[in-house]
Amino acid sequence: MQAMLALVGEGHVAPSAEDVAARAGVGLRTVFRLFKDMESLYAEMTLAVARRFEAMAAPFASREWREQLAEMTERRLTTYEMLMPFKRAGDAHRHASATLQAHYASTLAVMRARLRGLLPAAIAGDPLRFEALDLWLSFDAWERLRGEQGLEAAAARAVVEAQIARLAAD
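Structure tokens predicted for AcrR family transcriptional regulator (170 residues):
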């Protein structure tokens, strides 16, 4: 698993079983003895990466919702930046894996529920504002800003924070 995580962390979106075996210094049979197929290897990687997302679920230091929203924004953006290569690798295989699809859906549901739970009713109940906040706090928005638009992390963070502030304003 460490070999898989290292390869993906270096930007290899779809390392082969041969790549994993070579990095781990083991034979190809060993890789498949530990993991039935590449889907199970990616599923295991997804679970390992998911453990790193646990910091996002820690209790907030603040009791005021806007400060909690700022904490949530900070946690998510920091986590997205750290886990970007792993998320991309998982996304590349999600369409072919029921396990990855289920994990992704579950993660999104938890993140949306956590966001909805900290917002005042006027915002949580406003579909346009809630969906826009959820979008700006998503990995998809972060990846677009960092990848396709080529923004440095600080500039991407400024864009997200500005949009969150606008949507959270009275």
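The mean pLDDT is 85.
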